[in-house]
Write a structure and sequence with these properties.
By secondary structure, the chain is of the alpha/beta class. It contains six helices and eleven strands. The strands form two sheets. It has a nine-stranded mixed β-sheet, sandwiched between helices. A two-stranded antiparallel sheet has the order 1-2. Helix 3 packs parallel to helix 5. The chain is globular, with a radius of gyration of 16 Å. The chain starts with a strand and ends with a strand.
Length: 213
């Protein structure tokens, strides 16, 4: 079982669960996803981040800074640097897809990280894709849906936990409804008073009450 951590009321998920993290901009969706990964890393889980917004090196540094010198088992799939014209060199912690459109490359790099972690004896892994909204900027809904069908299936077959960030206000109701078909549950995030955010879980056990994070 995968515990989601304090922010999600210590909710547990079955291996192979895929969760959507949905809400407006600036509500801490990405930070919440990283918190769930961090909770797992502290107990020995592997963490994989697919980033479509920041460079892999930036994401890796920010993640490692959460551990006070300890080195977690982490891999980052960077979909940004090559698209911006760079020629980065892959490392054992950062791999590169050519762009957010390179969905085949993203899937290959994800699988390679999972296989590498398995070889090191890491059997429980958490995967964060940030974000679906960026993928939808570059590809149509049908293409992204097919990609996510394969991606979420990979999470299931690896008995991992998948987290997928989306800006719910950037897409119409039909798009959000189509995306939700692929997920076992949703962490819904919204703005609250005093510059704070609230979240609730849907589809993972009973729907929870809104709680401040």
């Amino acid at each position: 079982m995968y515990e989601l951590g304090d922010a999600c009321s210590a909710t547990e998920c079955e291996p192979g669960t895929n969760l959507l993290i949905a809400g407006p901009p600036m509500t801490g969706k990405r930070a919440l996803g990283l918190d769930v990964l961090t909770h797992g890393s502290r107990r020995g889980d592997g963490a994989i981040v697919v980033t479509t917004q920041d460079s892999g090196d930036e994401v890796l540094r920010a993640y490692e800074d959460r551990f006070d010198g300890a080195v977690p088992t982490v891999g980052v799939v960077d979909c940004v640097s090559k698209q911006q014209g760079g020629s980065p060199t892959p490392t054992d912690r950062v791999a590169y897809a050519s762009s957010p459109v390179d969905m085949t490359g993203i899937g290959i790099e994800l699988s390679e990280f999972l296989e590498r972690f398995y070889e090191r004896g890491v059997r429980e892994n958490r995967i964060l894709l940030d974000s679906l909204s960026t993928l939808l900027m570059y590809s149509n809904l049908q293409t992204v849906f097919r990609f996510l069908h394969v991606f979420t299936g990979r999470v299931q077959s690896a008995d991992a936990l998948g987290l997928f960030v989306v800006d719910s206000t950037a897409h119409d109701d039909q798009t959000m409804s189509t995306l939700r078909q692929l997920f076992d549950g949703e962490i819904e995030v919204r703005e609250s008073d005093a510059d704070r955010s609230e979240l609730r879980l849907k589809g993972v056990g009973e729907t929870t009450e809104w709680q401040t994070v």
